[in-house]
Amino acid sequence: MGRIKVDVEQKMSFVVGNREAYLAMLRQELEDATRVQIREDSEVEYESEPVAEPYQTFPVRGKEDMVIKQGHDLTCGMRCLQNIYGAHIVTREEMDKQAKILEEKESIFTDNVEPKYDPKLGDYSVEVLQSVLENKGKWSQRIDIHKIPSDYFVPVVKQNPTFVGYIVALPGHYVVIKYNQETYKCMDSLKGIATRLIDERTLLKRRGGRVFCSQDSDDTRPVVALLAIGGSPFVEYSLLHSSWSQSPPTPEKFTLEINNVLRPMRNIRSTKDKEVLGWYNKWKTARVPPSEKTMRHLTTCVHSRTNTSCTIIIKKADEQAVIRCSSAEGLINELLQMQWISKGDDFYLQMDSSGIVDEHENELDLQAEGSLQDFGIDDGSVITLNSSAPSLSANIGGFYTFECRIKGTCIGQQHNAYSVRDNDGKVHIVYKKCIETIKR
To answer: Measured at the alpha carbon of residue 253, what is the angle toward residues 248 and 259, in degrees to the nearest 5?
Structure first.
């Protein structure tokens, strides 16, 4: 068993209900046990002679995996590392030392240091597991199981030739899904639980709104969070995540185009940016992570290859044009080539008399990135191009819907209104009955 705690941001920590009672029970068991059961060298002997367990009764090729089991403790996190790479990868002393280092670093910034381990039982946080892996030259990648279905991330993650498996966070426990020669095996360090052979077609699928390691009827522990483990950065998955859209292509198409974008010889000739070109030259011989700028370039390339092209009607004064493109960048580039817009002049794009923005309120301008769908643009959409900001005047007697967005510092409050100073120093009086939402 191990420490699991979950955070609204995407940090992989987990909270276990009634954890204190469980820790107290284990401590009592340790105190009541004989000296032979708790002496330090017993753990070393246990690690050097791991217990072998078959992974169900399926016919398999080759030698069965030796599964290292935990005793009366909470060392499932450490056992995960050992069951992936072998007992030699880390010792209990190393785990404890790394946990103390992380606690000391955290104490520099806060007085409320969250414990990273339990000196008697283990109970290592995921930060300790990741830190130990990093010290050993390994890489871990958080998988967004709530955003991306396994049909997409499973085939993309294994494109990393150094990928060895997943560390899976279950409620109150960690297990390993080990990958080798197209085979996935779920290995559990708890005694009495056999290793489970999982078909890739049923791996990490949703069932009843939650994700499970397999679709077996007796697999009832939902996955809380997921880490992919390997010996090099997971560039393929990073590209999948950064280029994900609400209307993705098929998993096969997505995987194919990610691989195409990452082929140096296919892309070097068409790449003019020196920084991106330099990364491609390094990528020929080593799996090095791309810089932020290079990742943006790669993401744009994947977008242009995977997003479905749309036919868009653009209107400008008395002129009209039809543009076919597949991304926000593609649309802007078409308008630049037509000389309907230029980098030195302001322009405004509207659809249905409203400005065009994505879910993060980013406007469709020269810096726009993402799919057309991200901006609410579909096949056949009609967009109006204006060279000046749209008029905000209203005629007396006309019926209108007034929409506005005010960002700034709240400097006063009355019984029916707020006073808000915006970034230009202007003070706005905002009546409470007109407010739909307030965001921090």
So the answer is: 115
